[in-house]
Every structure is written in structure tokens, then in C-alpha cells.
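Course assignment 3, question 2. Fill in each field.
Student: A.L.
Task: Predict the tertiary structure for the chain below.
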Amino acid sequence: MQAKSLSLLHYIQSSVFLRVVLIGFVILLLQIPISMIDSQITARQETKREAVSDITSKWGRKQTVIAPRLIVPFTEIKQWRDDKNKTHTSRIKHFATFLPENLTIQARTSNEVRKRGLFEVPVYQSNISISGTFNKPIFDRWSDKPELIHWEQAEIAMGVSDVRATQKQVNIKWNNEVIAFEPGLGLTSLNNAPGLHARITSLEKDKVSSFKITMQLNGSKSLFFAPMGKNSDIQIDSDWPHPSFQGYKLPNQRTVREDGFSANWSVSQISRNYPQQWLGTKFYNKQFNKTLVGVDFISPVDSYRMTDRSSKYVMLFLLLTFTVIWLIEVLTRIRVHLLQYLFIGLGMCMFYLLLLALSEHIGFSLAYLTASLAVVILCAGYAKAVLKTKRNAIIIGSSIAILYLYLFTLLHEQSYSLLFGSLGVFIGLAVVMYSTRNIDWYDLVNVDKKTMTNE
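Answer field:
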């Protein structure tokens, strides 16, 4: 009975196909520690989000500025007769909204990095100048009774996503009059949307009006503007060297330097999805958000995102590394125990935990180099003891080092990751096929059976 058990164990260890299946099982088993490491990456990302939220809630969040619009109320009078031929009159108040004819926005940001523990977030102070002109409001499409237009109740409204981060009182120079803004969007405030408004008591209904607004605004991570003018020109200058231009339209001109960037957008009303004037009760701010243009102030390397991306390749790395060890087994007849496969796999899994921990302190690139060297030395040293020769250890160490170099290239060339990944798998398969091209697999099985018979 004991002899049969030993023969069965020897068969399991010697069968090529069954051994491949068991090695595959070890790879699947190693997904348990990998999933635990993935959970740790997610937890650290959540901790970072909390730290970032804490900083931005006190300094200023992502800022979106929706440039000024002119709101003029008017009353619509309707008359009708009932069944008894009695005349009834109703008065309905409307808010007509007019956008600037010309709009110029100039923003200059001074950026810095704020830290909370190990985590950091780019923040900025901005000086924003908004100027332009409004044409004479025309109500022909809505009212044929000019005396029902309430010129004295006209307002200017401007959206600011985090108005709490304004640093000083914001004023508007309307023609030659300086008027202070008040909190909220005033007459057409919808769903308590954040912003500012000012009452324009001296609106000259038969004249083009000019305006200018200057404001100091704190924010973090991004700055966006809505091109509200019939013709809008938006200019952003910054000392941040890593911009990511976003929005429904990229800049017409941009210059990125080591000491900052400059970007300009020129937008015509024909490319927007909202008109130049409308009734305020029929329009919502979400329409503006579809045509925002601006910039994200990104960090050059997000270590958590890069670590998370690198962990997606662990199955491929384990498969290729175990294939190299298995080929050495087949070609040299050195037997490697499944537990030894497991230990090497655990060593490779440790790479991602080391990368996560080290990148919080020394940056992603240096952490990647340190973690990969540590794992290569660990696995190569263990392989020397398991595979008996220094040559085999060098093959294992070199294979793992090449894989980590390959992964580093994939992480930094995101646009070509699919191409490089496909080529890597193809080359790996080609190497395996070339290395085993002369092996008689049936002969291997026969040899194993003879060995079992002799024993």
C-alpha cells in the first residue's frame, strides 16, 4: 500500500501534463496575496483622497468660473375670457438672460504643493480678470410692451463653484460705476447653485455696456471657465510645469515650459450648445458645464495609480517566470518542488507591496528600482539553491529583471501599452516554442514510466 502511494506521488511529480496543471494551480493560489495587496493599494488611495479632501476643503476645491450674464426681469400680461364672457388678466414675471457680446478672461495662477502626512496635492492662488461688453438687450421675441421691462431690477450673475475660496471682496466695474458683488446667483438662483450677483441699477437700455471684474481665487487641482461670450478669448498662465488641458475644446495655442505654461482658447458661440439669450426659467447651469475649457494641475507621477496599474500584470509575470523554471526542469531534469514555485511566486508578489510602501517615501521611480532589485536578488539567490547551478540562477534573475524593465516601459508608455504587451506575450511564447522545439514529449513520458517501473 505504501509502495502504491509512493508510486502515485512519483507519477504526480513526474507527469509533464499534470505538473503543468499543478503549476497553474500555484499561480491561481498566488492570486490570494495579490488580491490582499490590491486591497491595500485601494485603502491607501482612499486615505490619500481623505487627506486631499481635508486640504482642499480648507484651501479651495476645483474651481469652475461661469462668466457673467445679464438678467433683466419683465412681466408678461395675458388676458382671456371665461364662459361668462368675463375678462381675466394674469401677470407672469420672467427673467431674460443675455450673454456678453465679447468676453476676455485672463487668469494667472501661482502654484504650490500642500502636504498632509505622506500625501500631497497641488493648490494654487489665481488672479482672474474678466472683461467684455453687453449689447443692448432686445426683448422682441418675448415682449412687445417695453414699459413692462424692469430695467431697474437688472442683475449680473456669475457662477463660482467654490465661492468660499475668494480672497477679497469682488467688484464689477459697470461702465464707470463700481458695484460690489453679493453672495448667491440672485434672481435666477437654481438649486442653490454657488456664485455671485450684483444689482445693476444704472443699466442703459439703448447703449452697449462694458464691464470688468477682477478677483483673487484659491483652488486646487484644476481651473475651468465657461466661454459665455459670442466671441470668447480665454488665457491661462501658470508656473506649474505639468498641465493637462481638459474640456470640450483644447487650447488654440499652448506653450509648456520647465517653469510653467501658457494656453489660449478662442471660442465662438457657433461651437457652443446654448444660445446668446434665453428665458432664465428654461435654462440650467448644467448646460454651461458641457462647454468648459481649462486645465488640470496634475502631479507628474501618481504612485498609487502606477502601482495599481503594475499589479495588473502579475499573472503574466508569474506565468512567464514559472515557464522559465519549468523549462529548466525539462531541459536539465532538475526537479523543483511545487512549494519552491510557491516561495518564488510569493517573492515576486512582495515586489508590489514593497513598491507601494517605498513609493510613499522616496518617489515611484526610485521605489520601483529598489523593489525590483530586492526581488531579483531574492529570487536569484533562492534559485541558485533550488536549481543547483549559478548559471540557472542567472537565467532566473535575468528573466525577472527583464520583466520588471519591460513593465517599467509599459507604465511610462501608456499609449503603447497594448502594443508592447502583445509583443511581450508573443515573444515569450516564441521563446518557449523555440526552446522546446526538439523535445520528444512522448519520450519524456516513457522515461518517467521506466523510472517508476525500476523503482
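Instructor remarks: The longest strand covers residues 63-81. The two ends are 15 Å apart (CA to CA).
Grade: pending
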